[in-house]
Amino acid sequence: MKLLFLLAVPAILGAADAPMSSVDKAAMNPSADPCVDFYQYACGNWIATNPLPADRARWGRFAELQERNERVLLDILQSAAAAKAGRTPFEQQIGDAYASCMDTAAIEKRGLEPIKPEIERIESMASQSDVVAEIARLHSQGVRVVFNFSSEPDARDSTRTIASLSQGGLSLPDRDYYLKTDARFVEIRKRYVQHVARMFVLAGESAGTAAQDAEAVLEFETILAGASADRVTLRDPEKNYHIVTKAQIAALLPAMDWDLYFQGVGAPAFESLNVSQPDFLQQIGASLPAQALDGFKAYFEYHLLHARAERLPEAFEKEDFDFWQRTLAGVPEPRPRQFRCAQFVDRGLADLLGQKYVELAFGADAKARIAELVANLEKALAEDIRGLGWMGADTKKAAIAKLNAIVNNVGYPKKWRDFSSVVIARDDFFGNAVRMAEFLQQRRIAKIGKPTDKTEWGMSAPTVNAFYSPENNSINFPAGILQPPFFDPRRDPAVNYGAAGSVIGHEMTHGFDDEGRKYDGDGNLRNWWTAADGAEFEKRAACIASEYSGFTSIDDVKLNGRLTLGENTADNGGLRIAYMALESALGEKRDKLDGFTPEQRFFVGFAQVWCENIRPEELRRRAVTDEHSPGRFRVDGTVVNMPEFQKAFSCKPAQPMVHADSCRVW
């Protein structure tokens, strides 16, 4: 049935006179009390009838739609991959990239041949200059070792793009995995060392040497972890903005020949850059030079093998999957190869594949209706800001100015990127992956010193996601997410406002969360708040952080309310804004549909985009690394703060979905 998605999409987009659909009643558990457990009420039957597929750590409505989109991409790619006469250059690139990924026989036949020169290069390192040159070479190929170097808009002047350098170089998901002494982290480190050793054996090392090198990798990365800032600190843009000159960066890490490095990565001339975490460079500068050259070799080789594992023979792919997916996320099986190959092309040649996807799956009618929805939510947010009792007139004026300056990007970028220079060979999967990575990395580096292109997107058009860019002050909704169950032009507006509307409101609210509020309407890091209003904001944000820190993700693992603060603030504000927009759109019309009032349909529509099943291992990992709360708390954690929800379902004061001391920022 899913194979018919290409045929179904045009019907969805053009069926203005089709019967109006409402909430997904089949997903609901009507035996649950919405005032006791709203998530179970809205999603209970979906959860019960959609067990986790063997190839997934998490399965939810996002993944459900993403797989439907991937089937569209597969149809495009399989057609383009057919080696027929008359293929366009566009079809040749995406088709041959996909075909090279699917040709497992050729991959097995080549064995270690593609990666062998890189390993030999690392093994031949004999000096500190060789180490610096290798860092530059690996970075140019998209292999992130020791630190990250790229480009970014200047936070104080977003019209210009500058060089940026930040902490990096870890393999495990977070610094806590290296530093914490809890039994589960100790066990993961033990398994990590075993995995690294097995990768080295596959690459030709003896078991004894591989074991020593694996320990060296863990030791090296533990030094990096000890110097790394925690994820909450990384969320604060003011703590991660430090403009330094080239001379000053040399003082932070004197063992590094920076001129050699910048030349090696192909960076254009520049005088200063943002070093996000200068303490990181100082600390590793005090520790890494003492590492033996063999430690650098082991560290570089593992990172190279891990980055290229899916491009190597099956034994590497299996070993890589066994640790990174089965051990860390609890996933029993890898995804079918055709889906992984579609993702490979979507990541590496995003705009080529995206153009075809948009042509097939996103019509002008959908774009117009979404634009209308966005406009209605903007009006609601403006009304919300004007009505805030805790905010003064001057800050309100600045907030409205920022809201009016938000750029709305819907469906796809205004300008598609040109990938024509990327050489794609039908019989060279490994080489294709390297050339794609080199192209994307060089494209990022080449932006240094140039005006910022504020129209550029960071996601491909088929992606099921959305994002707010503080530097561009833009909200961006790829065509991939503007499909059912998030949005359907023929559907009951109340459900669209609850589903797509809450997502749109979420992204708008990001412009005013604890991070976004520090940027002005031009995308510059600037304090436009009065001191009193800033203090009032922080007090309300602290309520959200404390509330979510009380939620248990699994067993004894609590959510980190400070890590998830921005997303939780956006969930709460976005849903309230969408509700206000719906109420304005409804006017006096309050007809029931399928037995539900418009307000009830709104809240159920919101909840049903977050229906999910997730593995225990993945819940534990995300509690440490993910800025988003699990689906259950994105629903219940939001509605408990909304008197409008409690009124819609006639909840009583003592029931679980009612908080007497509810939190509200926006």
Q: What is the CATH T-level topology of the largest domain?
A: Collagenase (Catalytic Domain)
Q: CATH architecture of the largest domain, please?
A: 3-Layer(aba) Sandwich
Shape: globular
Any idea what the radius of gyration is?
Answer: 26 Å
Count of DSSP-assigned helices = 28
Q: Sheet with the most strands?
A: 4 strands, mixed
Assign the CATH class of the largest domain.
Alpha Beta
Q: Order of strands side by side in the largest beta sheet?
A: 2-3-5-4
Q: Which whole number gives the mean pLDDT?
A: 94
Terminal-residue CA separation: 42 Å
Topology:
Elements: H1 5-14, H2 38-49, E1 58-60, H3 61-81, H4 89-102, H5 104-110, H6 116-123, H7 128-140, E2 147-154, E3 157-167, H8 176-179, H9 183-202, H10 207-227, H11 231-234, E4 243-245, H12 246-252, H13 258-264, E5 272-275, H14 278-287, H15 293-308, H16 314-329, H17 337-348, H18 350-361, H19 364-386, H20 393-405, E6 407-411, H21 429-445, E7 467-469, E8 474-478, H22 493-510, H23 531-549, E9 552-554, E10 557-558, H24 565-586, H25 598-608, E11 612-614, H26 616-625, H27 631-639, H28 643-648
Parallel strand pairs: 3-5, 6-8
Antiparallel strand pairs: 1-11, 2-3, 4-5, 7-8, 9-10
Helix pairs in contact: 2-25, 3-4, 3-17, 3-18, 4-17, 6-15, 7-13, 7-15, 9-10, 9-16, 10-14, 10-15, 17-18, 19-20, 19-22, 19-24, 22-24, 22-25, 24-25, 24-27
